[in-house]
Specification:
Pfam families: WD40
Number of domains: 2
Structural class: mainly beta
InterPro entries: LisH (IPR006594), Quinoprotein_ADH-like_sf (IPR011047), WD40/YVTN_repeat-like_dom_sf (IPR015943), WD40_rpt (IPR001680)
Strand order of the largest sheet: 1-28-27-26
Protein name: LisH domain-containing protein
Largest sheet: 4 strands, antiparallel
CATH topology of the largest domain: Methylamine Dehydrogenase, Chain H
Biased composition (Low complexity): 283-296
Organism: Cladophialophora chaetospira
Oligomer: single chain
Length: 485
């Protein structure tokens, strides 16, 4: 039936909203519709809205920073062929995809709104292995793996759980009152684990699990409903950051020279990155047991991602992704409307003492207003120089979108999600959209992405890239490199 064709109805609504009455009458007759079947919405496009949108787009171009067209960084071949996993029991919206690969024992985990956690193999034919039913008691929103053996996950219930790769529950805590939207994990000095969670209760919790208890532990079985087998391993948070707005994203990054660990966070309605320095205290750093180690967590600096722009072009850094080959390079997907902005930023690790004005102590020594203004301008210039790329991805978004960006595993480009069912690949040197992957239902939200390698036990030199995507069309795709033969 023509009335069910959404594109026909959209065109008819556009003609009606702009008072093209004669054209509308002819169009409706051709489409077999009546004017009563065309109901206007408050957000229907008009010529005036299109012109206003074009004006805003032209203004935003002035703040973009693009690369050199002759310095292409996108490498071929790249994932482009969509493959659906065999026997995958898709029943609800996909919320999170995550994975790891190595030694032929890799895995891809997929969580859905029906509270399930699915385990799939990261090599053709991408078989579905098993589903862990309702491990959190609520939908799982984020996952992070350490060493390929242990998986941290957070959920809408505010819980943080640690599972073995086999699926056995090791420990769990519930320190967030609302959605725990992200978990990240990494290593502090002496190889000690650091885990951070962010929640809608405007808190970031940092944990230092007593992982030495796991050294002689060999998990077996996959019954997630059992009680934790090592209760207390996660312990209480070593530090809690209270944020004035909801934390949006986090990344754990080591300083390239000192190898100190920094937690980098972003907040809603702020264009800053906030740095938190995590160290073991000097008196206890040589301790053989993590239970005897104490930690220091201090806010050490911040970095403005819009140092010279006005408030009306502000955005929120909604997804932070460190480059796999250069962790000091950050890809940032923003909540900018109506299309996602992508930034490629060099991290400016803080030096010296820190003040809330984002200036070091030496830069504030000047007592004159002119000297302080010059110091502030110098900071803005450094922050502006750190932004290597600032471009429009043309990926449509709404205020309810969840921007996502993932690096290709070789560090040669990124993929971003969108609300139109299309995944876009961008060259991080030129800023151009060089790939459009269409497989999800048109107009559906692609909510989550993960990039890695096929893991079938073959040598590393022969491994092929894969991209995994999940969306609100209840489908998961493995994007593979097409054979060149």
């Amino acid at each position: 039936m023509p009335a069910k064709n959404s594109s026909v109805v959209i065109v008819a609504r556009f003609l009606k909203a702009n008072h093209y009455n004669e054209t509308l009458t002819a169009f409706l007759a051709e489409a077999g519709l009546t004017e009563d079947e065309v109901t206007l919405n408050a957000d229907d496009w008009t010529i005036e809205k299109i012109l206003e949108e074009k004006k805003q787009y032209d203004v935003s171009l002035a703040y973009e920073k693009k690369g050199d067209d002759g310095d292409a960084g996108w490498s071929s071949p790249a994932p482009s062929k969509a493959v659906e996993p065999e026997n995958f029991p898709a029943a609800s919206n996909i919320l999170c995809v995550s994975g790891f690969s190595g030694d032929g024992e890799g895995a891809v985990f997929v969580t859905a709104a029906d509270r399930s956690w699915n385990h799939l193999l990261p090599h053709p034919p991408f078989e579905w292995r098993t589903a862990y039913e309702n491990p959190h008691g609520s939908p799982i929103l984020s996952m992070s793996s350490l060493e390929g053996k242990y998986i941290f996950s957070t959920s809408m219930s505010g819980q943080l759980m640690l599972h073995a790769r086999s699926g056995q529950l090791i420990d769990s805590v519930r320190d967030h009152l609302k959605y725990a939207v992200q978990v990240v994990s990494g290593y502090a000095q002496h190889g000690r684990w650091i885990v951070a969670t962010a929640g809608w209760d405007q808190k970031v919790h940092i944990y230092a699990p007593e992982h030495d208890l796991l050294e002689n532990f060999q998990p077996s079985g996959n019954n997630l409903r059992d009680e934790p087998i090592i209760p207390g391993l996660l312990r209480d948070p070593i530090h809690t950051v209270l944020t004035p707005t909801v934390p949006e994203s986090m990344a754990l990054v080591q300083h390239p020279d000192t190898h100190d660990l920094y937690l980098i966070t972003s907040r809603r309605d702020s264009t800053f990155l906030y740095y938190y320095h995590i160290t073991t205290t000097s008196s206890e750093s040589s301790s053989s047991r993590s239970s005897e180690t104490t930690y220091s967590v201090q806010e050490s600096g911040r970095q403005n991602l819009a140092p010279h722009s006005n408030a009306w072009v502000a955005f929120t850094p909604s997804c932070l992704a460190p480059c796999p080959t250069d962790p000091t390079l950050l890809a940032i997907a923003t909540s900018h409307l109506p299309h996602m902005k992508l930034l490629i930023v060099r991290l400016l690790f803080p030096t010296g003492s820190y003040s809330s004005s984002n200036s070091s102590a030496s830069e504030l020594l000047s007592q004159t207003q002119a000297g302080q203004a010059r110091a502030a301008l110098a900071i803005q210039d450094r922050e502006d120089a750190a932004i290597k790329l600032h471009v429009n991805t043309m990926a449509p978004q709404t205020p309810y979108s969840t921007p996502q960006v993932v690096w290709r595993p070789g560090g040669k480009g990124v993929f971003v999600n969108a609300d139109d069912g299309v995944i876009r690949g961008l060259d991080t040197q030129t800023g151009k959209v060089v790939a459009t992957l269409r497989g999800h239902e048109v107009g559906s939200k692609v909510r989550t992405l993960w990039a890695g390698y096929e893991d079938d036990g073959s040598p590393n030199d022969n491994k092929k890239e894969i991209l995994v995507s999940g969306g609100f069309d209840k489908r998961v795709f493995f994007w593979t490199v097409e054979d060149q033969s």
